[in-house]
Give the backbone structure.
Amino acid sequence: MVNRRKLMAVIKREYLERVRTKWFIITTVFGPVFFLAISVLPGLLTVRNMRNAPGSAINILDATGTALGTRVAKSMHTREENNPLRKVMSGPEAPPIVEPTVTSLAMAGLAAAESTATLAVMRGEYQGYLVLDSSTVATAKARYAGKNASSLGEMNNIEASVRSALLLQRLEGAGISGPRADSLSRVRADVETERITSKGRGGSGLVSAIFGFIIAFLLYMMIILYGQNILRGVLEEKTTRVAEVVIASISPETLLAGKVIGVGAVGLTQQLVWLSFSVAVSAYGMGMAAAMGMGAFQLPQVSVLQMVCLVLYFLLGYTFYASLFAAVGAMCNSQEEATQAAQPVMMLLVASIILVQPIMTQPTGTMATVMSLLPFSSPIIMPLVMSGTQVPMWQLALSLGGLMVSCVAAIWVSARIYRVGLLMTGKRPTMKELVRWVRYA
């Protein structure tokens, strides 16, 4: 029987002992700063690299006998001019656009021109050279060689410029006038996605998918971090013989429940702080997105039911895994043994997170439905599915109900292993011995 007064004392101790540590304060305060830095810093570094980039352009070797090389150079100039990063760098900070050099030549002199261009690149006169020949006109195939050939962004820009120039040339060849062909070749499709639920429109589909991934990853990290925190705490009390003194005045069940609830409250506190920080900086992020030409950026619509479900999935998922981690800590005698024994529990978590990407691509598929109902994966997968599509109430109730039953079963089994294993030393128990502990504890 759990003593409420002693349970509250254990919860208070576990909570205050962790909240008052400098590491909790550092991770709680600087954790959001770190995630913000890794989100914003790449963009700032890209802008800085763009500002300090070398001014050498590329050399376009045009052996097509047409003005294709000039069209490609013009298309590259237009794309560089419309680069969203240039909108961030205003005034004299923006580097000048370096025009590509176009060299028109006959097919017979292309091989010699390539050798000369290669030497020019080696001397640093050009970043690289683009070869346009008869096959480019016929089959839309071009060749590029240069120091920046491994830059995916620059290669995509060159490929898009060649494709746009070829389209413009073919339109003019079909009898469409120059200005008209130019306007047709610049057509750019911008498809905005929006979810529709039974209650109507539900906001941007892309934003909802990103939000779901963030929530799933955050729940995964919190469960694994604080679950292992439970494991280390139990193992430390067992190896230092503190548990022998504590159990003299409190039942093992009360001690286990206090640890799970106290550490869970620490994780919930940290999540609330991070959520408040995320809301506070969202306006800045939306302003940056608008400045970079990404258009209006709306926060995902989260209903009261979804928010309640997110909290429930975190609490139940944490309770399920924390109970298992506590049982692992009670049956082991060293950190090395605990690391090995915790592998099956870790595999359940890892199996859930590695399926996030395929489930994001098809949130209404069979895999998403099955994994959102299984107790070991539902705390991570169901919040992801809920953000991507509308989940039927029966499916949500079945998932939560199954997770609750699994939590009760995990607590029941873990409490019996915890009661016996906390005072046992020596060799790690076998599976048969664990069954005997559960049966007779």
